[in-house]
Protein 1
Amino acid sequence: MTIDLQAKKAELLSKREELLNRLDAIKKDYASGLSADSEEQALQLENAEVLAEISRVTNEDLQKVTQAIERIEHELAQ
């Protein structure tokens, strides 16, 4: 069972890293600001709504993954 838990923990740690990278990419996209071109600005504003939702879902997933890692660590410590 310990081996299964350790494998699952490794999988979750990898998933957590992927989620953190996704959030970082979203933050960088926001930080780049708006284009000087008004048509490009319109597209960027539309994309901002999508990015906000992706960010929200990613944060929820990150919380679930972190909680799962904590449960596994607690189980392994016993």
Protein 2
Amino acid sequence: MAQTADYEVLIEGKAYPWNKDTISVGDIRELAHMPTGAQVVEEDLRDGTERALAEDDVLHPVKLEGGKRPTKRVNFRQR
């Protein structure tokens, strides 16, 4: 039986499963196969704002609830 992830991270429009309650900038790069040192930007999909993430930022991915589609509120992308 396949194990499902507890969280989901949206990177450049693609959903990635994640099993921890936090994610680092390095983890985001690794999941999306971004180059080491690439600038990562957090986009708030509700209000259209964005901010460049610092290398030591730690973020909280979207918690998945059984049987429900997650609300896409934040996307990460390479600048």
Protein 3
Amino acid sequence: MLWSRMFAPSAGRSAIVRIVLDTNIVVSGLLWRGALYEFMGAIRAAGDVDLYSSPALIEEFADVIERPECLRQLALIG
């Protein structure tokens, strides 16, 4: 599936897509260059997508991104 099609407005659907991304999706999309990386790139390119979060999700992200396996991957990708 082309991610860009997923975000294209269609009849009967609002032009703005609202998304809350789970911490695991964000971490995987940022640290590894697979389907989730492409998905996050499509979100960024769409321009008509609003991303939402919460203090709890941000706190969880901060905790997860400091784990040893994430820090190793961050060091690899620079």
